[in-house]
Amino acid sequence: MSLVDAALDLYLGAQCHGCGTPGRSPCPKCRDALLPMPAVQLRRGLDVLLVSSIDYDVAMPFVIAYKDRDAWQLTTPLGLALAAAVQHLAKKIDIGCDLWPLIALVPVPSSKAAVRRRGFDHTATLAAWVARRLGMRWSPLLRRTIPVADQVGRGATERGKNQVGTMLARPGERAVIVVDDVVTTGATAIEAVRALSAAGHIVLGVATVADTPLGRARGAAARHGKALGT
Q1: E strand or H helix at 182
Q2: Residues 45, 22 share a domain
Q3: Residue ranges for the chain with pLDDT beneath 70
Q4: Which domain holds residue 2?
Q5: Structural contact between residues 54 and 69, judged by C-beta atoms closer than 8 angstroms
Q6: pTM above the 0.85 mark?
């Protein structure tokens, strides 16, 4: 443990959100685990490319801490993961970096209640961080028009029905990439793409920090919704 970490542990009781090691979060070991490994993911009903950077089990303690425990220092590692997903997506669809300034990152909107409780919109914050890093734009084109019913315990089909028609996008003809923290069943991403497309935008794909393996999507969706209230 470094002297800085020892001081943080002694005076602030700081510890890694992933493994509980005293000191800064993430600790060196968990920071290595959070290194982006972007890959294309599949979700039934999603007709654009989806890319995620980190496995659900690694990312979730840090996503929860970032959203609900004022762990602002996690903006950088989570932002780097999201940026890597965006870059991988752009490469897959053959969008050169010279065109990046023309693309807008569109964060999936949190509920108004969640934003009030947390004091900030975490996905919008990450989208702005990534946009600055990559030389892109970001725009809050999406908004929730209907509160989403509790997702806990719902399967993929039920979650999909629960999301349909809950978002509205400002009209336009922009090339956009939808960004979010975690993809589980894909229902939220599908609704975001639908709303943006209906408003006239060209949706290039979806990029997220983390991905839940398809075989565990239902259970993860329940845990994610219960823990984070999204």
Answers
A1: strand 175-183
A2: no
A3: 1-13, 146-164, 214-230
A4: 1-33
A5: no
A6: no
